[in-house]
Each structure stands twice: as C-alpha cells, then as structure tokens.
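User: Can you help me understand a structure? I only have the sequence.
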Amino acid sequence: MEHIEIEKKFLVSSLPFALSSFESHVIEQAYLCTAPVVRIRRQDETYYLTYKGSGLMAREEYNLPLTEQAYSHLLKKADGTVIRKQRFLIPFSDSKLVVELDVFEAPFAPLLLAEVEFPSIEEANAFRPPSWFGEEVTQDSRYHNSTMSRSNL
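Assistant: Let's start by predicting it. Here is the structure, written out as tokens:
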C-alpha cells in the first residue's frame, strides 16, 4: 500500500503520565538498505517490508506484507543494528491525531521519540506540540531509524 507519510518527530525527556493506560505494540525492525530505505518490521505478530522515498517531513511509503519465515530470512541479511522498541499510541487532545511514542531498547535506551502523522503538510506546519514534547528533530536525519541502525547515537 502506498501513501505519502507526513510526520514530525520530537525528543521526549519525561512523561507527565503513566504509559500503561495506552495501547502499545512491540516492534523489531532492521534495514536491508538505507538509500533508498528498505526496512523489514515485526510489529507484534505482523510482518512487513517497507520502502520509503527520500525526504524528512514528507515522503513516499510503500508497505508489503511478509510471512514470519520471510521476515526471519531477511533479518539475517540486514545491515547494522536491529532496532527494538515499544510504541505507545497516545490520543492527542480532541483531534484525530495520535502521538506514537517510541521507547527504545538498548543500545538506544533511554531514547524516547514522539512522532505525529498528519493528513497534510499544512496541518503539520500548523501543529503546536504539547508541553511534554522536547526539541523537534523532524529535520535531523540522525533520528531516522534507518540512520540510527548504523550508529548508536
């Protein structure tokens, strides 16, 4: 499935609430290529391969389903560090937006990254983050998971 992903990313240093009350997913992902980005991901018990076009705030994204066996086979061929994280889905105020808060495992712990996806670039540009968000890192490619897989921040 293809769509244009429009998102902003923010560092988070502390949370004003307990995460246990929010829906979450366990994610493991690895990169077969970082230019262009070709990623494999296990989210809970669902597996898929993703291609991402170039860009920082807006870029093409294609997702294709994988079997567990195909994921396991491709994982052995991945480059760099496998990224493991828990993603919490936090509704944002009274809008339809959802904050995806990623809590990273080693070697990236204690990194917390909040991502918000938008239906349009105009809505992304008009977004006012909540007070618990820290520095915006949308334009900082060091916080793309594909870049992180090649470093330890």
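Now, to help you interpret it: The longest helix spans residues 68-75. The mean pLDDT is 93. Let me know which part you'd like to focus on.
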